[in-house]
Amino acid sequence: MRRQWIRLLTALLLAVLIAALPICSAAAEGTDLNAGQQQEEENGLQDGGEPVEDMIEETEDTEDIEDAAEPAGQEPGAEDSGSTGGGTDSGDNAGGDTGSRDTATGDSDSDQDMFSKALAKLRTGDHEPYMSGTTDGRFKPDAPITRQEVAQVIYNLLEEKPADASASFSDVSTTGWAYKAIAAMSTLGVMNGDGKKFRPKDNLTRAEFMVVMSNCFDLPKGESTFPDVPESHWAYEAIAAVQGKGWIAGYSDGRFGPDDDIKRCQVVTVLNSALERRDGNFAADSDKQEFSDVPKSHWAFKEIAEAADPVEQLDPPDEPDPPAPPGPGQLPSGVKVGSTVQVTSDNGLNVREAPVDGRVITAVPDGTLLTVTDISRAPWLGIKTSGGISGFVLGDYVKLYTGGGGTPQNGSLSASSLNMRQYMSARLDATADKQVSTMKWSSSDTNVARVGYTINYSSKKQSAIVYAGSPGTAVLTYSDGAGNKKATCTVTVTSPEPVRFAYPSESIVQKDTDFQLLAITDDSRDQVRFDISGGASYTTDSYVSESNSSEHGLPDNRTRVFTQTLKLTLPGTYTVRAYAGTGGQFSTENVSFTVQVKDRVSYTDATNEPRRLSARGIAVIRDFEGIVNEVEDDVLVSGNPTVGCGYVVANANDTFYNNLTNREAYAMLIEKADEGVYARAVENFRKKHNIKMSQAQFDALTSWVYNIGTGNLSQGATDAADMILNMVVPPSVSASKPASGVVNTSSSTNPAVLYATTDRSGKKEGIIPTGASIKVTEVKVIRSATRQEVWYKTSYGGKTGWVGSGYVKLSGSHQIDLNYADSTSLATELLLWHMAGGITPGLVYRRLDECKIFFFGNYDEGKPYGVETPNYRKNTYGFVYPERIQYLDKR
Length: 891
What we know:
41 strands; 24% strand; single chain
């Protein structure tokens, strides 16, 4: 009894402390900075991995600095806490830890390197958590972070904590929970306040956090490219230095937003990069959701998983949670599977992995709405939270929710009607005034259509994933938490598509060689017929059954995969149409695709013939993109729900197949990458400029544009595209008969270096800037098993030497021929495309693999099915890495 009283008193005392410190969990809680995988808000940056908008290239120092944090469509710094972060109250300078350049660093305006002597050394390279969440199981990823919370986070990360640290700020008590951290930050010069006040509860701004980072690391001076950070800005040097490290990126409109509050999810993203955590053990425990408000669909899910662990329950109620109800098997009145129930426990309610003694996953506060998924374990209820966490709660402490008691608010839908085919899903976007997660969905006929789950992008916007279960009509109703109907959408479902996907095992086939035609249907079909242009037709009843189970409670997806083996003897492009049949009756609808048959298939001969993506090229993209079986938000570019192998459901009201089998994901990739816009964009570029190109080069470029956007492969759009157009059949030149040219692709991140010889490890005579006119007096072509280079001899600035051909546009008309591709220039340029909210090693290795394929036809050093080959990270051919990522250059 005495022990129970002690435990109760301890819990009450801790509860009081927690109430006073909303987001901070005493030791580690307020640490959210954006570290690492940064991404842009609003329209989203691009990431390193989806074929959405054009990715920000790292050339010209346009790094993705921070916003690794905010979801697309959300206003930068949308949460207005009433504090300016640095605070201008009482006439103080903006920036509590920086107030001005003087108070930020403790120096006056000296000419020294501002960040050459970081006193606060942080622990790097490990994977210990340095932040936590709240006691109710949340992390509050989009909440701002206060100055005292940041102080505590940095304090937690110090390699050595100063033993004699002290501070005498008028607004910081020596008995306060963050006093030691604040005193240490002041002693080390990391956060100094304005001399009198520290303003511990003010939110920290983005600019202020950059100063904190610059005070913790020895950073070289940099150059900021943000239009809202002029050199006169008090934090310019800090922002420029951190940008120079590639730890941050700005908003999608190019701004940095220095005065916006920085969010908790942004803090961890930046810190994860700065702390060198992005190795093979990054986010090792991301297989499960640990915070109720950070679902796997949240763009920063892995960032938070790497940085934080939930607060352990202080003293969870003795089982059962709390005392057992009076009668066995008793459930709240009216509750059934699919019901919404509301928590009625003042102290919150544990959610367990299993009834009675299952591990506590999280705790949900009083008033929380839950969806019932299982009533077979009464008095325990299987439930799912709005954040997607599934588990069990004791039914005695919930009641049937019938509306009312919630917050009235306005809401709208992207469509008032949808037309869908059976078994397909649709993206239906919804908005709300305040908390979109509290809005409710219902269906007039759940057998016909229902909202399977929702993806929240911000507090005001979500996508409802509508599932079409059977033919008919159903009305979806969108209501607020008080039960008031706000909008409806009428869904009309028609019969399923006879054939979902059809494709060849090899898109480019050598004549008289066996290959397969494949078609995927639902499990009601028993035959497929393939009709081939020219008159041939094949009918097959040979199939294998495949299925996938939903993590969101949707019906299992059951498919049949039909195959037909054949060979074609005449070269040409054949159109194949696939029809599905049942009981000998075939559909009139079909899915068509093409097969290219050649006398000989070569991957390394550069010719003028039309190109398409090969099966090897498709596999490369699949291996890098991975497979997402059920649509979820893009973790790097929020607002871009993604399914399959990087396919983005880009528009509201689009329909698509969800809950995919792995083979369906692969078939969808072929449909989008080869038959769709990506391979077509590369072929249009090749055809427009009459480029002689090999199959390997075509495959590598298609993988590149699938990742960073098709708009980057056009003349004048990027240096990479222009370099390809510079690679021509070498002209006959001499000292007396030189060729004229202009350097048109030299940049600060990939300069046109004039070398003394054609050895890149040799002496550098200088750099030729973009716009410089030169005379080429000699050409040297190097083709070997390890070098694919073309050099032009020229003079500039009184020096004579050699420059890579990709930097130079020769005057006159020349045949563009990638038999003369120059890795000296182009490989370095391709390797620059590695930014996704900061330097992303995974993108560096993807670019490296694409270079190996482009220049050497080497498809064998990638990561088949996501498994790295021994040489996957090895710079086998000695490509020149941009300076910023040379630490990743492994030879």
